[in-house]
Design brief:
Helix content is about 30%, strand content about 15%. With about 325 residues, it is α/β, with parallel strands linked by helices.
């Protein structure tokens, strides 16, 4: 009998769904980081469905990848940097990339429109009961968006960008023509692309090659009117460089859903920045996202039991 361990902060609904979908599977649950090593040691699961629900700090990576660990780890989110360094010959890792991509694309455009429509200014006028009939909107049509990382999320962003009439340029590790993208460049071309973009969206995995790929040199090359949105991983951007860029008005605005330190410390300078939206790594979170991710796991589990190829297998060297 296949043994499955469900690791999440809330597991009742998932356990019930698994029992209904695959009644021949033996399953146990675990709802903390601290108890996972013991649970794996005692149960010895064949596969673990795991969500990094308490942040990367303290995540029990060694329990999943050590002796007696599962043959397959199904990550409930898209990022796998909390598992970085696994041996693909010893364990298969899949992720849930694509499940939350449409929601993340909505976050991107909600953030951009917040600034281009000057929602804070409208709210201030309302609070003061001031009727500023000379106020101008700033249209998206005709402007250029740079998408750094054309994976599931990047492609969803690109589709919406074209609907808004934007020119879309983007980067990926292996450049090739893509739907809704006017120009696809190699990641190594980034320094020559920053200056062209009115809007910049970061949607790449955190790897040694992408850590701090957005840095002081990058900000110096951007337009002073640029708006940046980060929905990737905090380490992709140098937070200190962003703070300096915002304080010196090197760029106009930023929306940040991810940070190098999470939760963002109470005394972090990010909190006091003007023209910045801060959100608690929630751009991919909506009411049903966890169960949608789990449905992908169930589909993959059926494939696994049938000896068929799994969806979303992650290459540890590429991180996706």
């Amino acid at each position: 009998m296949t043994r499955i361990l469900i690791h999440n902060s809330k597991t009742d609904e998932m356990a019930a769904r698994l029992a209904d979908a695959l009644p021949g599977v033996e399953a146990v649950t675990c709802e903390t980081y601290d108890s996972l090593p013991e649970r794996i040691r005692d149960f010895r699961p064949d596969a673990v469905y795991s969500i990094c629900f308490n942040g990367r700090a303290g995540f029990p990576r060694d329990a999943l990848l050590g002796d007696g660990g599962p043959k397959w780890i199904s990550v409930g989110g898209s990022g796998v940097d909390h598992l970085a360094g696994w041996d693909p010959d010893a364990v298969t890792v899949t992720n849930s990339a694509g499940v939350a991509a449409p929601m993340m694309a909505e976050y991107v455009f909600g953030s951009i429109l917040h600034f281009t429509l000057d929602i804070p200014g409208l709210q201030a006028d309302q609070a003061e009961r001031e009727w500023r009939s000379a106020r101008l909107m700033s249209p998206l049509r005709g402007k250029t968006m740079l998408i750094v990382g054309l994976g599931h999320t990047g492609q969803e962003v690109a589709a919406r960008a074209k609907a808004f009439g934007l020119t879309v340029i983007g980067t990926r590790a292996r450049p090739e023509p893509m739907e809704n993208v006017d120009e696809v460049h190699a990641s190594s071309d980034l320094q020559n692309l920053w200056h062209r973009a009115d809007f910049i969206v970061l949607s790449v995995p955190l790897l040694p090659t992408t850590r701090h790929m957005v840095n002081a040199r990058s900000f110096a090359a951007m337009k002073p009117t640029a708006i940046l949105v980060n929905v990737s991983r905090g380490g992709v951007m140098d937070d200190a460089a962003l703070i300096n860029a915002m304080r010196t008005k090197t760029i106009a605005a930023a929306a940040l859903d991810v940070f190098e330190a999470e939760p963002l410390p109470f005394d972090d300078h990010m909190w006091g920045l003007e023209n910045v939206i801060l959100s608690p790594h929630c751009s991919a979170v909506y009411a049903d996202w966890a169960m949608q991710s789990f449905e992908l796991f169930i589909e993959n589990l059926r494939r696994w039991q049938a000896g068929e190829p799994l969806k979303n297998i992650v290459n540890p060297e590429r991180g996706y």
